[in-house]
Amino acid sequence: MKAVILAGGYGTRLSEETGTIPKPLVEIGGRPILWHIMKIYESGGITDFVICCGYKGDMIKRYFTEYGYANADFTVDLAANRIEINRSAREPWRVTLVDTGQDTMTGGRIRRVRDHLDNDTFCLTYGDGVADIDIPAAIAFHRAQGTEATVTAVQQPGRFGALNLADGNKVASFREKSMLDGPMINGGFFVLEPAVLDRIDGDDTVFEDAPLRSLVEDGQLSVYRHDGFWQNMDTLRDKHVLQGLWSDGRAPWRVWA
């Protein structure tokens, strides 16, 4: 099975970083968040990826073309015009990088990579969110439902501590923010049948709009509930939260060995 990753948006709410690089290349712990997402899928047995590029997509392509040398020790023999690899740390990935257009919407990007999906069930997620999700369990759940699509529902992380106010000007109790503070939202990590692609009209189609609505109306959208960790990287604050967890050795999404 292949995993499609949407990596073409402008990331305007993270402009402190995305003015110079695409959001999927913003680093957590010295690695792009895109790398973290791919490692999550790898832990679930998926190593074949289709990356939907757009804004600054050339940088994402360059990241992968240079990945081998960037993560290896090697000797450059200038006299012999030869490079000798001493140690290679390559990932077991096959990565297809597709230019899906600068201003193409999410649905359009998915439709543009149709020829790379082998008319088979595939996974789909966004290039800015991580979770300690059990990928094989999500796929098995999807197959058991028999629907065209499954979306992972997650609790939106609360951003502020909760105050329980007593009479007067005193606080009776304080509870730090938790996953329980927010509503259930679309957490990405979809599992989709190829028939879903027929619900996408073209480049201007927002996947989360008409296609998902039509799936709901036809009873073809199942919900896989993930009660564990999930966090997107929508703002600089979100990046700092993820970086803090990684630096402290408490990154729940690190499900790989």
Layout of secondary structure:
Layout: E1 2-7, H1 15-18, E2 27-28, E3 31-32, H2 33-43, E4 48-53, H3 57-65, H4 67-70, E5 72-77, E6 82-88, E7 94-99, H5 106-112, E8 122-126, E9 129-131, H6 135-145, E10 149-155, E11 162-165, E12 171-175, E13 184-186, E14 190-192, H7 210-217, E15 221-225, E16 230-232, H8 236-247
Parallel strand pairs: 1-4, 1-8, 4-7, 10-15
Antiparallel strand pairs: 2-3, 5-6, 8-14, 9-16, 10-13, 10-14, 11-12
The count of DSSP E runs of length 2 or more, i.e. the number of strands, is: 16
The SSE string, one letter per element, is EHEEHEHHEEEHEEHEEEEEHEEH
Strand-residue fraction?
25-35%
What percentage of residues falls in helices of 4 or more residues? 25-40%
Total helical segments: 8
CATH homologous superfamily title: Spore Coat Polysaccharide Biosynthesis Protein SpsA, Chain A
The general outline is globular
Beginning-to-end CA distance, first to last residue: 21 Å
Which structural category fits the helices and strands? alpha/beta
Q: What low-confidence regions span 5 or more consecutive residues with pLDDT below 50? A: none
Q: Write down the domain tally.
A: 1
Question: What is the arithmetic mean of pLDDT?
Answer: 91
The CATH topology is given as Spore Coat Polysaccharide Biosynthesis Protein SpsA, Chain A
The CATH architecture comes to Alpha-Beta Complex
Major sheet = 8 strands, mixed
CATH classification class: Alpha Beta
What would you report as the Rg, rounded to the nearest angstrom?
A: 20 Å
